[in-house]
Amino acid sequence: MKTIIEPFQIKVVEPIHMTTPEDRERILTEAGFNLFLVRADDVLIDLLTDSGTGAMSAEQWAGIMRADESYAGARSFYRFEQRMQEITGFAQALPTHQGRASERILFELLGGEGKIVPNNAHFDTTRANVEHSGAEPVDLPIEEAKDPKNRHPFKGNINLRALEQLIERVGAERVPVVMVTVTNNSGGGQPVSIENLRGVRAICDHHRIPFFLDACRFAENAWFIKLREEGQQDRAVKDIVRDMFDLCDGATISAKKDGIVNIGGVLLMRDAELFQQATNLLILTEGYVTYGGLAGRDLEAMAQGFKEVLREDYLDYRIRSTAYLGEQLLSAGIAIVEPPGGHAIYVDAKAFCPHIPQAEFPGQAVVCGLYRIGGIRAVEIGSVMFGGGGHAPPAMELVRLAIPRRVYTQSHIDYVAEAMIELHARRDTLRGLRIAYEPPALRHFTARFEEL
Ligand code: F0G
Q1: How many CB atoms lie within 10 A of CB 336?
Q2: Does the beta carbon of 424 sit less than 6 angstroms from any atom of ligand 1?
Q3: Do residues 265 and 102 touch, judged by C-beta distance below 8 A?
Q4: What is the pLDDT of residue 37?
Q5: Of 244, 216, 251, which is closest to residue 344 (Cα–Cα)?
Q6: Is the CB of 187 under 6 A from ligand 1?
Q7: Contact, 442 vs 128, CB < 8 A?
Q8: Which of 241, 375, 423, 439 has the fewest Cβ atoms nearer than 10 Å?
């Protein structure tokens, strides 16, 4: 069969709301042209993020009822811990309320003034947590990643030569950790190869630097490895996942992605002393070690979600359905980051509206246009997200259409493609914006704009 179907059926449904073009004009103006400030009820198809927006399975909901809410030593914690051991091989795992809580603890321990943290590309919260500690985040993507049309199979790879040169230039003592984000979210949801991870391991061994994964989308990354990396085709995804974790000394994970839960995170560390320090910080601000700011039911849902995400029929459908949207846009002449990523399609906004200069936020213009035309919510990943605060404008101006896990059907995706194609036909009408208000950090969440 040619069609790869959704490998699930729908048991619970939730109505979604259509608005009129007049409604949307008013809503957009009231929200200061920032879709983060729009109520979800006023959105028809919500592609703002794939984080915490997935649909849980019957087994996950059943786990929620079975959960143990004891303060210390809850049965649900041990189920969670055992699942993390099974999947990652790490002896211990700390639960946190989400990815950025793991990041905050990690960088409070390893960051600080004068330190430099390399990554293939920091996600915005990771970057902000590195900076908050006083350290400097440095992105080292491979050259191919800077060209949206380049179809390199592992465009998420870190530039090993640049990593080596950076460490030699600043000195290993100033680099407390090397991070690699799988898949690379800021750079198009692109995967990192096992070969590249091995290269990082060798460099870190040579300089005695710990190597951590930002492993939010580890299962999607492993699926790409199976599809694209030589010698990996006949291997089970769980074995590839295990290889990825075996190569690192620790990981920060947001379970809101490949954990397929609405809230939750994980912090993994092999070093016993560092683990102890992290445990102390966890207790200080998140919660006791066996719940880490979560309810027992959240731990149950995570334990089950991390199992389900490794099902190969699920990953096959997941990666294929994202590519399906990408292919429709490409065949209509819309430039995207190629090849399609795992959790999202990234539209090249510079190519979409060449008449809008980078300083006038072409990505935000596309985001507003897409909401106006179809009630669809997307997010800008460009100058709004990464500019400001003295940062140079990023190389690419992107609009991310992130696909929640197990939520939308093929006809929803067809509708999104239609809306994008219609917007593209009318792209001359899109207008640039200027910022009317911005907060000191992470400005994309609360900034307000005016249309020019
Ligand atoms: N690292 C990556 C690669 C991420 O994509 C995210 C979140 C985080 C860390 C932080 O995790 O949200 O649980 O605190 N990404 C979401 C997104 C928000 O929309 O891409 P968190």
Answers
A1: 25
A2: no
A3: yes
A4: 97
A5: 216
A6: no
A7: yes
A8: 439
Q: Which of 308, 330, 357 is the last residue of a domain?
A: 308
**Regarding beta strands 398-402 and 344-348, do their DSSP bridges make them parallel or antiparallel, or are they unpaired?**
antiparallel
Spatial CA neighbour of 214 closest among 97, 319, 100: 100
Same structural domain for residues 324 and 301? no
Shared domain for 284 and 325, answered yes or no, is no
The answer to whether the beta carbons of residues 266 and 303 sit under 8 Å apart is no
What is the spatial distance between Cα 252 and Cα 258, in angstroms, rounded to a whole number? 13
Q: Amino acid letter at 170?
A: V
Tell me, yes or no, if the pTM score tops 0.90.
yes
230-to-174, 235, 312 alpha-carbon distances in Å: 35, 11, 18
How far apart, in whole angstroms, are the C-alpha atoms of residue 59 and residue 10? 14
Q: Report residue 202: phi and psi, to 5°.
A: -65, -45
- Which residue's C-alpha comes closest to atom 4 of ligand 1? 123
Identify the residue whose C-alpha is closest to ligand 1 atom 11: 99
Q: Which ligand 1 atom is the nearest neighbour of the CA of 51? A: 16
At 4 the pLDDT is 85
* Same domain for 214 and 152: yes
**Cα distances (Å, whole numbers) of residue 437 to 95, 404, 448:** 36, 30, 5
Phi-psi category of residue 85: left, alpha or beta, with phi > 0 → left and psi -120 to 50 → alpha: alpha
Tell me how far apart the alpha carbons of residues 48 and 35 are, in angstroms, rounded to a whole number: 8
Single residue among 242, 277, 308 that ends a domain in this structure = 308
- Secondary-structure percent of the chain, ordered helix, strand, coil, rounded to 5: 45, 15, 40
Q: 214 C-alpha vs ligand 1 centroid, how far in Å?
A: 9
* Ligand 1 pocket mutation, candidates 120, 158, 190, 257, criterion most atoms within 8 A of CB: 257
Would you say residue 389 has pLDDT above 80? no
**Does residue 49 have its Cβ closer than 6 Å to ligand 1?**
yes
pLDDT, tens digit, for every residue of 283-339? 999 999 999 999 999 999 999 999 999 999 999 999 999 999 999 999 999 999 999
Q: Annotate 400-430 with b (16+ C-beta within 10 A) or e (fewer).
A: bbbbbbbebeeebbebbbebbeebbeebeeb
Measured in Å, residue 300 CA sits from the centre of ligand 1 at 21
Distances in whole angstroms, Cα of residue 198 to Cα of each of 180, 204, 243? 11, 10, 10
Statement to judge: residues 103 and 169 lie in one domain = yes
Rg of the chain in Å (alpha carbons): 21
> Nearest CA to 319 among 387, 431, 223?
223
pLDDT-based confidence at 14, cuts 50/70/90? very high
